[in-house]
Amino acid sequence: MLATAYRPNADSYHRYNAGMELENPKTTEAPVIRTLAPLLINQIAAGEVVERPASVVKELVDNAIDAHAKRIRVDLEEGGVELVRVTDDGVGVGAGQLLKAIEPHATSKIRESGDLDRIATMGFRGEALASISSVSRTSIRSRTRDEEHASRLDCEGDILSEVRPDAGPVGTAITVRNLFFNTPARRKFLKTPRTEQMRCVEIVKDLAIAHPAIGFTLTVDGAIRLDLPPDQPVHDRAVSVLGKEFGAQLLEVSADEFDDTRGLTLWGLAGLPEIARPTIKGQHVFINGRPVRDRTIQYALSEAYRGLIEPSRKPTVVLMLEMDPGAVDVNVHPAKAEVRFRDASLVRSVILRAVRTALTRADLTPIWGDSSRRQGHSGFGTGAAPTISAEQLAQTLRSINPAVLERPYDIEALREAVASSSIEQPAPLIEPSHEALPMPVRRDPILQVHNSFLVTQDEQGVVIIDQHALHERVMFEKLLERVGKGDLPSQRLLVPATINASAGRLEALERMQTLLSRLGFEADAMGPETIGIHAFPSFLDERRVEPSEFLEDLLDKSENNGLAGDEEEALREVLDMMSCKAAIKAGDSLGAEELGELLQMRERVERSSNCPHGRPTTIRLTIRELERRFGRG
User: For strand 71-77 and strand 215-220, is the pairing parallel, antiparallel, or unpaired?
Assistant: First the structure.
């Protein structure tokens, strides 16, 4: 039998609108205002501070960091629901201070309202221990350096033991058992122990990355999950936590920008595009050692990786920002997870510039079967003598398509194969560059495979290129540069091209008129059921793009909310569509001159390793991987 759904009655509706909760909805007496009991006050506060076991872990580890600990140990059982224990070797809490430590709004970290403007500690509100102890069975053991023995205090809700002597080293150990034992309604909303455990582990990892001077040990149900020594170099600590397999896929990022009134220092690691993730869980951002979430920073990262990863994916990064505590407000979120910057534009610009610079300087070509990579540009056609033999290249080409090579080839034979693959075409598929291109020191062989992929070599191995994806990136960058200098030139049509006009297409056309004019389109309604195209971008006309087909696709995408609301974002999306339509396609045969022109364009265009959608244009098969596959290493 199905349960009957709750339906609010009239009294409930009026009570809701009145903004008050009456003891009895039938009575007309004024409500009684009462002072809440201390335990209930703390349990209400715990609703903001202690959301789940991970919240307990964060608050206790924050306190250990503030206590100048050099080593911190975190023990978890049943995802932290049954046990969270945090042990540190910090300065400790004196026996006479233990009772004060669990009082609400009692703290040693701030004294007056002005201190809130320059918070330099991890904790500061004085709510953590009071909130945690009100919803759990908590034990605190602590000892300062000038005490002969430790002291212990046990709490169970609002029941407190006496402070009594105990054995223990200098520092503090806080044990939290049976979380939410006295608030079962909240306990039932916890996830599975495995899910809660994962959140606790994430918190410890974040804090460990942010504080490499501190040693961290984490055990889960008795098994060691993390064991990090103190005083680790910041790079080593980040790689130890993220995973050594990522070590070769992280680029160092740094910036140091200060003037007389503002500034920040930035150090971090930016992941290569291929390790981007579907969510922001791979983003570890710290402000003055505090893990935070911030839209300003997320926006800067999205901009830095624009065109290098697919829009649905998020970059993997570690960013550590140090700035004047007065320049950032950490008192804007109950769990201290969000911040507010006094100068958000400075933070955004420094992160964007630093990450973009690191990505620009790196060789972002994905490596097939080999995680090691050489930093810097690949240098097509330039640099040292080639290190890949003709035999190795031929073997690789056979593995791609056995029909491409029927006998062992030398370099001259490969050149002959390239020359024989060209055919007469009515017009070049690749627009010749009118700018002076640097002449290569050597001319590497280039082979077109299945009229879709280009195979060549560089100093590191065999390079395989998706001709459509690369040309799309080249076209996009050219268009973006032209639009930056003014509106795109337009070609008037002798006879207007027409498309069917639905209500949605007409609305999209009206909404996009300014943007379309900027890009060289001239289109309007010609009656209730037709849209006429009177002018078309010269660029698309030269690339033989059909006006009606293009505008149909564009208006349909806009009608279905496929274009961004921001004008500049929408501009990039339309340029991307233009580039995709104008670029050479899979199946287009290229002559030798076109092959060479395309590869030289690759060297001149920023972010040529990826198409505007973020997919790779190029994959490298290294010499090391070739040798391994041929049994040479």
Answer: parallel
Single-letter amino acid code for the residue at 547: P
pLDDT digits (tens, 9 = 90+) for 28-68: 688 877 766 767 766 665 556 788 999 999 999 999 999 99
DSSP class of residue 305? T
Q: What angle do CA 560, 565, 566 make, to 5 degrees?
A: 150
Q: Are residues 144 and 93 in contact, defined by beta-carbon separation less than 8 angstroms? A: yes
Helices (H), 135-183: none
Which of 29 and 314 is assigned the larger pLDDT? 314
- Measured in Å, how far apart are the chain's first and last C-alpha atoms? 69
Question: Is domain 254-361 given the CATH code 3.40.50.2300 in the classification?
Answer: no
Give the Å distances, CA to CA, from 244 to 234, 235, 237, 279, 359. Answer: 14, 11, 10, 21, 20
Report DSSP state, residue 610. B
Secondary-structure breakdown of the chain: helix, strand, coil percentages, each rounded to the nearest 5: 40, 20, 40
Mean pLDDT of the 551-559 span: 89
CATH number of 390-471+586-629: 3.30.1540.20
Tell me how far apart the alpha carbons of residues 604 and 360 are, in angstroms, rounded to a whole number: 12
What is the average pLDDT across 418-422?
42
Please report, for the chain, the start and end positions of each structural domain, with discontinuous segments joined by +.
40-228, 254-361, 390-471+586-629, 487-582
**pLDDT at 111 > cutoff 90:** no
> Which numeric CATH code is attached to 40-228?
3.30.565.10
pLDDT of 118 reads 61
CB contact at 8 A, 479 and 579: yes
pTM to 2 decimal places: 0.72
The 10s digit of each residue's pLDDT in 564-617 is 667 888 898 899 999 999 999 988 888 888 888 888 888 888 888 999 888 899
Say if residue 27 is exposed, middle or buried (CB neighbours under 10 Å; 0-12, 13-18, 19+). exposed
Share of the chain above pLDDT 90, in %: 47
The answer to whether 254-361 and 487-582 have equal CATH topology is: no
Interatomic CA distance for residues 398 and 389, integer angstroms: 14
State the CATH architecture for 487-582: 2-Layer Sandwich (3.30)
